[in-house]
Amino acid sequence: RKIPVLLLPDGRAICESAVIVQYVEDVARESGDAEAGSLLLPDDPYERAMHRFWTAFIDDKFWPALDAVSLAPTPDARAQAVEDARAALSLLEEALKDRSNGGAFFSGGDAAPGLLDLALGCFLPALRACERLHGLSLIDASATPLLDGWSQRFAAHPAAKRVCRT
User: Fold this and answer.
1) Is the dihedral of CA 37, 38, 41, 44 positive or negative?
2) How many whole angstroms separate alpha carbon 81 and alpha carbon 2?
3) How many angstroms separate the CA atoms of 72 and 46, rounded?
């Protein structure tokens, strides 16, 4: 009762976007079919775990906080939601600093985003709409300079250009 769902040839199903992507990644790694630089998660097992952790954080903490900004029933609830969204973005700012190794993306590379980049990047259009709708600045050069630069690079990447107009 969830979407999206990946149906396997043997009839089993895998739900949730991030889990599906990780499954496909694992199959590519195990089969040896992955081309160099085409994988979405780092080679190092610890770094893969950290990217998976932050991907779950985006789904479980950041998105609900951002969503609550627009759905808040009162001004006080909205103010709390904005505070929660900013707190989550502050943690993601630190994660970008720690995971990127100075590269353009969370993946640590300059050429292509990885899973963690995609997990946060898919929310950029909603984040920018929320900012405009409520007169907010959530990702900007003063509060989250690394995320601000990252969001511009992500939105400019050919894979994201059509959907991430910021």
Assistant:
1) negative
2) 26
3) 37
The residue range of the domain holding 83 is 45-163
* 7: CB partners within 8 A, 6+ apart: 13
5 bridge partner residues:
15
Query: How confident is the model over 63-88, as pLDDT tens digits?
Result: 999 999 999 999 999 999 999 999 99
Q: Can you give the CATH number for the domain in which 70 is found?
A: 1.20.1050.10
The position carrying tokens 């969204």 is 85
Whether residues 90 and 136 share a domain: the answer is: yes
Query: Same domain for 73 and 150?
Result: yes
d(CA 125, CA 30): 34
